[in-house]
Amino acid sequence: xxxxxxxxxxxxxxxxxxxxxxxxxxxxxxxxxxxxxxxxxxxxxxxxxxxxxxxxxxxxxxxxxxxxxxxxxxxxxxxxxxxxxxxxxxxxxxxxxxxxxxxxxxxxxxxxxxxxxxxxxxxxxxxxxxxxxxxxxxxxxxxxxxxxxxxxxxxxxxxxxxxxxxxxxxxxxxxxxxxxxxxxxxxxxxxxxxxxxxxxxxxxxxxxxxxxxxxxxxxxxxxxxxxxxxxxxxxxxxxxxxxxxxxxxxxxxxxxxxxxxxxxxxxxxxxxxxxxxxxxxxxxxxxxxxxxxxxxxxxxxxxxxxxxxxxx
Length: 312
Fold this sequence. Notes:
Radius of gyration: 19 Å
Strand order of the largest sheet: 4-3-6-5
Low-confidence stretches: 1-11
Number of helices: 14
Mean pLDDT: 92
CATH superfamily: Aromatic amino acid hydroxylase
Strand content: 5-15%
CATH class: Mainly Alpha
CATH architecture: Orthogonal Bundle
Distance between the termini: 36 Å
Number of domains: 1
Number of strands: 6
């Protein structure tokens, strides 16, 4: 029985992460970009969204950076229900040109970066199971929309994302000129690992100087969508927090299954934009060809997405 048939018969399966027939069908047919079938969200899905929002709001007011909070106001979302991406885009696109683009799941690295360059943010439409609100090993719509999207209303942050997305094309052009296949794969693996680490420690888990001396605010989406870690990252003495240095970031491995013990602080989104430019220049100069090993692992699919970039 297809997903739509189940809806017609009144047995809506919902859009729960890892248990959504709609997503399974899309993936089976190789559909990367999809629609948001809003009618498939179950009552449990909607209740999970409300619970997630209710407990995060006080954390955001205390720890989130001002531009994130402004973004929440700009989007004018009805937080009592899972947002419709088309409604988000109505408010976001006129400000920065960014649009939330629904996807069926994992996006190979080059394609993801290329979406950013084109002011599109690949957005997951499923939502985590309500029995486990705190940890999810993969993105869901709460992480993508409540964590990422409000930042996309800020022009300076949006421009930094676009500049970062363009780094993928630079990487593809660099490795395309390498004739030796072994060297091409080795250097590409190092470059992609460096890009992944930069994205992780800035866009996903970045801290920013606050308006008061010594104050820190959160702008990374992984922190903004985590009830426990958003407080831990700012207040815990167990976390090492350093002013961001590019050579540290690209060589710092990370693991996804626990709170982050090392975080980096930027001055502003304009500072972040400049760092992306520095990152791209380092790539051109060969400074990302031999970063330290360790996590994250670079998949064959990610490598292939760069090697085949621009190939018809």
